[in-house]
Amino acid sequence: MIDPDVLARATEDVRRATGDPAIAELFERSMAENLRSVAERLPDGTTFVLTGDIPAMWLRDSAAQLRPYLVLCADDPALQDVLIGVLHRQLEYVAIDPYANAFNKEANGAGHTTDETEMSPWVWERKYEIDSLCYPIELAYRLWRITGRADVIDDRFRTAVGAILDLWTVELDHEERSQYRFQRHDEAATDTLVREGRGRLTRPTGMSWSAFRPSDDATEHGFNVPGNMFASVVLGYLEAIATEVLGDAGLADRAKELKAGIDDGIAAYGIVDHPVHGRVYAYEVDGLGASLLMDDANMPSLLSLPMTGYAPADDPTYLATRQLLLSPENPYFYSGSHAAGIGSPHTPPDQVWPIALAVQGLTSTSADERQRLLELLRDTTGGTGQMHESFHVEDPTVFTREWFSWANAMFCELALAHAGRRL
Predict the structure, then answer these.
(1) Is the dihedral of CA 404, 358, 336, 396 positive or negative?
(2) Among 242, 238, 206, 237, CA closest to 222
(3) How far apart are the C-alpha atoms of 203 and 223, rounded to whole Å?
(4) What's residue 155's pLDDT?
(5) Domains of the chain, earliest start first
(6) Which of 225, 317, 310, 213 is nearest to 266 (CA)?
(7) CA-CA distance, 186 to 66, in Å (whole number)?
């Protein structure tokens, strides 16, 4: 699905930048196989993308899996067709149910059918995550900017973003305005919401509420700060598209107003004073005084803020937060004889995620750190030659998910960035 000449040039760039044939070979193979293994062009011209080893399409994962291909697609019109097809499939899904995070290829009723929520036969899972709605807007903006093609933004986009804005506005006050409920009775506590599916009590902050994190684990405090930061960024993208492509001043104003309120909420509630690190970003807050200092491996994370576009890599508050996150003060930072990095409550203790290691490199201003992390990722596949969801810091042959497409994509994006090719 990628032009061989385009890939060959990129691989040579990676080889020169890293001085490591093994990293270049892993990059080339992953780029050649990763998208081809998960993407299926459908008769209607859209593209369905598996998350990997689960037969469903996650809005978040299907966009994140495309990031290294976006870097290279300017010179590959056929690849552009595939990527635009992914966007259009996402937009159709959002119109079906903006609260859902994962969808079936067709209306076959597969997935988590016993969950207590308003399911559709199109929906694999209906865990509402604010970031799931950010990714299609970001993908649309990047494809529009990179390709300049008129077929990127169509009527599907207008319908989907209308639904997104409606939902985010309702969830500014989850307690009083939202009808969303979610309960799952046969899994871990992190797979369901308390209070008969409403989630823990919150008070309005200016930010938009989220039931689940990017890890698909339930939020503890309702307002996921990195998710709202990502929403702020993509609302800026939406304002630009509404103005420059759609000529819709009303839509632009609506996006601008919602962004301003979320930004005010982040400033008022999302920054806390830490006794060691000073002013840092919280991971979650509830508007009632509680805050959570941690980070999760999944994007958007606090560590990924320069990637999502909310803060530059040299921003003082980001740097203070980064120092905290990459230390034992983050309860999901693990260190051992083979690796040190950020894991997740979604996976066992002492297991770090290749995604988080790649994000660490992509947000670093140090070429030496990027090189070190690429070599670490090269050496911790457990002999499989594939990135995993997570691996044990003392033994990389102990891992979750033998093959994780999103993690492979993040390795490739880091390799491209180290070679001077960035989104």
Answers:
(1) positive
(2) 206
(3) 10
(4) 96
(5) 4-418 (1.50.10.10)
(6) 225
(7) 33
- d(CA 163, CA 126) in angstroms, rounded, equals 16
Give whole-number Cα distances, 185 to 34, 52, 188, 190, 344, in Å.
34, 25, 8, 11, 22
**How confident is the model at residue 384, as a pLDDT?**
95
Judge if pTM exceeds 0.85.
yes
Structure tokens that stand for 402 in this block: 């033998």
> Which whole-number Å values give the CA distances from 370 to 182, 361, 362, in the listed order?
40, 5, 7
- For the chain, what's the residue count? 423
Distance between CA atoms of residues 322 and 281, nearest Å: 9
Smallest CA-to-CA distance from 298 within 129, 96, 115 is with 129
Give me the helices (H) in 333-404, please: 354-362, 367-379
Residues in Cβ contact with 102 at an 8 Å cutoff, skipping those fewer than 6 apart: 51, 54, 56, 57, 58, 59, 111, 123, 124, 125, 127
222 vs 13: CA distance, rounded Å? 43
Residue 314 amino acid letter:
D
- The low-confidence residues of the chain, meaning pLDDT below 70, are none
Angstrom distance (rounded) from CA 285 to CA 266: 10
Peptide bond into 68 cis (omega under 30): no
Cα angle: 386, vertex 389, 390; to 5 degrees = 100
Distance CA 339, CA 351 (A): 9
CA angle, residues 145, 150, 156, in degrees to nearest 5: 95
Regarding beta strands 399-400 and 271-274, do their DSSP bridges make them parallel or antiparallel, or are they unpaired?
unpaired
Contacts 24+ apart (CB under 8 A), 257-261: 258/165, 258/168, 258/169, 259/231, 259/232, 259/235, 261/172, 261/206
SS3 content of the chain, % helix, strand, coil (to 5): 50, 10, 40
Q: How many CB atoms lie within 10 A of CB 272?
A: 14
Residue 287 has phi, psi (to 5 degrees) of 80, -5
Phi/psi at 131 (5° precision):
-65, -25
